[in-house]
C-alpha cells in the first residue's frame, strides 16, 4: 500500500515524536529540538532506515527566515555601525579555520585536497556537500563531518550558554498564534512563500532562509509586523531541524564511526578553541556582550544558530549578522579556493 519512502518517513516521524515527548516529559531543555535529534540519531546508529521530510523540512526553514526578518527593527538598524568592528573579524576567523582545518584533514586524516578543504569550511551543511561533490570531493565524508559539526555545536552551545554565560533557555520563542493578528499571520506566510520561491528562482543561496528574511525585513521596518512567527511554528521548525540532524547518520558504518566521525569530532575541538578565542577578543574589545559574542562565533549552521539565539533571548540581529557574513564568505569563496588548492596539491 505504501512505498518504502513513505514507510521510512513514517518511522522517522514516529521516532522523532517519541523523542520529543520523552524529553518534554522529563523536563529536559529544548525538547522539540533535542528530543527528535537524539531519537533520530540513536535509530540511525542502530541501523533503522530513516528518511528526511524533503521539501517540508526546507519549508520549515522559512519560519526562521521570517523570524530573523521580523527581528530587524529600526532600533536594530541603528546598531549596525556598532557591529562593524566585530563583523570585520569574521573573514580573519574563516581564514584561520580554513588554514588549520585543511592541514588537519589533509595531513592527519588523509583526506584528498578537495574533501579536506570543504570538510574544514564552516558553511551550510548542504552547500558544502554540494560544492564539495561538484569539485570532486567525497560527499559521504563531507556529509558525516558537517553533520557531526552541527550535532556537537547544537548539543554543547546551550550548555555553554547557560553555565558560562548565565543564559536561560526558557525565553519566550514567540507569541501563540491565537494572540497574533490574522493579517500579520497572512503577511508572514506570504513573505515566507514569496521569499523562498523567489529566492530559488533567482538562484539565491540559502533561499529558504535568506529569501523570507529579505522579504520580511521591510515589513518589519515600516511597522506592518510587530512580532516573530507564532511559537507553534518555531517549535515545528525545531522539530524538523533536530530530526534532520539525526537522519544524516543513516547507514553509518563502524569504520566511518571510528574514522570520519571521530575526525569530525576532533576538528570540533579545534573549531571550539578558535571560536572561543575570537569571542573572547570581541568581548575584550568591548564590541559585544559575552552571550552575543559566543553565539556569533559558534560555528553551527545558520538555522540552528537562529534557534539558539531565539531561545536564549540573545540579540538576534547581532548574532545573525555574523553568521550571514560567515556563510556568504564561505559559499562565495569556497569553490574558488578549493580549485586552487586542488591544483597546488599532488594527488595521492
How does this model look, in words?
- This protein has 16 helices and no strands.
- The chain is mainly α and 348 residues long.
- The protein has one domain (60-344).
- Helix 3 crosses helix 12, helix 8 (125-134) runs antiparallel to helix 9 (139-163) and helix 8 packs parallel to helix 16.
- The protein starts with a helix and ends with a helix.
> How much of the polypeptide forms β-strand, as a percent range?
under 5%
Q: Give a quick account of the main beta sheet: strands, pairing sense, barrel closure.
A: none
Number of helices: 16
State the order of secondary-structure elements, H for helix, E for strand. Answer: HHHHHHHHHHHHHHHH
User: How many beta-strand segments?
Assistant: 0
Give the low-pLDDT segments: none
Care to give the gist of this entry?
This protein has 348 residues and is mostly helical. The chain is 75% helix and 0% strand.
Please name the defining characteristics of this protein.
single chain, 348 residues, mainly alpha, 16 helices
Furnish the topology, listing elements before pairings.
Blueprint: H1 4-25, H2 31-45, H3 55-71, H4 74-78, H5 80-87, H6 90-108, H7 113-120, H8 125-134, H9 139-163, H10 182-201, H11 207-221, H12 231-247, H13 254-284, H14 290-297, H15 302-312, H16 316-344
Amino acid at each position: 500500500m505504501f512505498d518504502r519512502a513513505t514507510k521510512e518517513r513514517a518511522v522517522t516521524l514516529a521516532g522523532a515524536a517519541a523523542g520529543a515527548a520523552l524529553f518534554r516529559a522529563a523536563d529536559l531543555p529544548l525538547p522539540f529540538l533535542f528530543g527528535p535529534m537524539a531519537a533520530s540519531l540513536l535509530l540511525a546508529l542502530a541501523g533503522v532506515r530513516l528518511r528526511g521530510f524533503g521539501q517540508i523540512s526546507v519549508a520549515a526553514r522559512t519560519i526562521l527566515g521570517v523570524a530573523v526578518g521580523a527581528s530587524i527593527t529600526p532600533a536594530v538598524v541603528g546598531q549596525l555601525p556598532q557591529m562593524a568592528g566585530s563583523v570585520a573579524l569574521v573573514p580573519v576567523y574563516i581564514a584561520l579555520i580554513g588554514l588549520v582545518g585543511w592541514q588537519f584533514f589533509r595531513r592527519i586524516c588523509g583526506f584528498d585536497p578537495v574533501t579536506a578543504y570543504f570538510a574544514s569550511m564552516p558553511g551550510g551543511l548542504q552547500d558544502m556537500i554540494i560544492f564539495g561533490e561538484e569539485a570532486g570531493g567525497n560527499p559521504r565524508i563531507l556529509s558525516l563531518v558537517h553533520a557531526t559539526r552541527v550535532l556537537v555545536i547544537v548539543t554543547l552551545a546551550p550548555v555553554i550558554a547557560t553555565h558560562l554565560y548565565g543564559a536561560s533557555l526558557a525565553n519566550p520563542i514567540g507569541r501563540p498564534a491565537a494572540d497574533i493578528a490574522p493579517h500579520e499571520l497572512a503577511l508572514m506566510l506570504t513573505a515566507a512563500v514569496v521569499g523562498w520561491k523567489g529566492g530559488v528562482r533567482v538562484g539565491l543561496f540559502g533561499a529558504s532562509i535568506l529569501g523570507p528574511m529579505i522579504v520580511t525585513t521591510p515589513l518589519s521596518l515600516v511597522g506592518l509586523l510587530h512580532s516573530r512567527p507564532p511559537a507553534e511554528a518555531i517549535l515545528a521548525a525545531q522539530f524538523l531541524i533536530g530530526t534532520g540532524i539525526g537522519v544524516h547518520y543513516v547507514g553509518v558504518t563502524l569504520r566511518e564511526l571510528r574514522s570520519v566521525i571521530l575526525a569530525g569530532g576532533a576538528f570540533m575541538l579545534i573549531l571550539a578553541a578558535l571560536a572561543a578565542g575570537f569571542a573572547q577578543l570581541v568581548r575584550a574589545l568591548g564590541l559585544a556582550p559575552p552571550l552575543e559574542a559566543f553565539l556569533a562565533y559558534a560555528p553551527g549552521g545558520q538555522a540552528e544558530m537562529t534557534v539558539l539565539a531565539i531561545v536564549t533571548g540573545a540579540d538576534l540581529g547581532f548574532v545573525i549578522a555574523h553568521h550571514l557574513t560567515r556563510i556568504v564568505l564561505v559559499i562565495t569563496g569556497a569553490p574558488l579556493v578549493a580549485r586552487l588548492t586542488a591544483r597546488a596539491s599532488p594527488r595521492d
